[in-house]
Design goal:
239 residues, alpha/beta, Rossmann fold, 7-stranded mixed β-sheet, 3-stranded antiparallel β-sheet, binds S-adenosylmethionine
């Protein structure tokens, strides 16, 4: 019998140089949840990828399951897309095709986390999409993990029309309206028995908390609604 390294160590090693906010215990939970969908049809959908930390954990699970891909939907802002608000916090605006997308508008990024976490990412490369591609390729996951530049509304219009997913990880815009809209869009793709899960659940984002309470916990179409780690929540969709 071949002795293999514990997966949590592989995840840790794979994301060691990938900037982002998703902690290792959560990446491990995400991985396990993804693997639990073995046998279900469909791929994995991620909304909010940044440099690829969570996408890599999902990609490692997809590689193990075989025949599963990971679609990563993000606005992938460039360095020049960020601007400072009057109160010193930051937001970004991205133009894709002829459409302008406003992000971190309601919940802006404060100066200190912006300078600490976001500025260094652009010192590496002014294109976030390029950094994402490099991080994914460094783990040889580029044949499994695919970026889509846009929001979920654009993905619904321009993404593959027959797309289905067995796991959706939501970590994009954290406002109530955005999360409710994203849940509604994801439901069109989720197969019965599949999971919807969220970062920043029941932590400091009121919009995320209320959207999960109203649209998932109060909805009989979901079962097994459970907080997995400090800020990671998942529920199973019964269709
Ligand atoms: C917290 S980061 C994601 C972190 C990532 N999951 C990780 O593991 O490091 C949030 C991401 O959501 C993206 N984003 C924000 N609003 C969005 C929207 N409306 N549609 C798509 N992506 C969005 C941002 O560009 C950013 O990359």
């Amino acid at each position: 019998m071949t002795q293999t390294a514990p997966i949590i160590q592989s995840i840790e090693k794979s994301v060691k140089d990938v900037p982002g906010w998703t902690p290792i215990d959560q990446l491990y939970s995400l991985f396990v949840l993804a693997v639990s969908t073995t046998g279900l049809k469909g791929d994995i959908l991620e909304l909010g990828s940044w440099c690829g930390r969570s996408a890599i954990a999902l990609g490692l699970a997809a590689r193990l399951m075989k025949e599963t891909k990971v679609m990563c939907v993000d606005l992938f802002p460039e360095k020049s897309d960020w601007y400072e608000n009057k109160d010193g916090s930051y937001s970004f605006k991205v133009t894709i095709g002829d459409k302008l997308f406003d992000a971190y508008h309601e919940q802006t990024v404060w100066k200190e986390p912006f300078e600490r976490d976001i500025v260094p990412v652009y010192q590496r490369n002014e294109s976030l999409l390029e950094t994402f591609r490099q991080c994914v390729a460094n783990q040889s996951l580029d044949d499994i993990v695919t970026p889509f530049r846009g929001d979920l509304a654009l993905f619904s219009k321009e993404g593959p029309q027959d797309f289905k997913c067995k796991l959706a990880f939501i970590d994009g815009d954290h406002s109530y309206e955005a999360v409710c809209g994203d849940i509604a869009r994801v439901e069109k793709y989720l197969v019965p028995g599949g999971w919807i899960c969220f970062d920043d659940a029941f932590s400091s984002y009121e919009g995320v908390n209320k959207a999960i309470s109203d649209k998932i916990i109060a909805n009989p179409r979901y079962s097994f609604a459970q907080q997995f780690t400090r800020k990671f929540f998942a529920a199973r969709f019964s269709g």
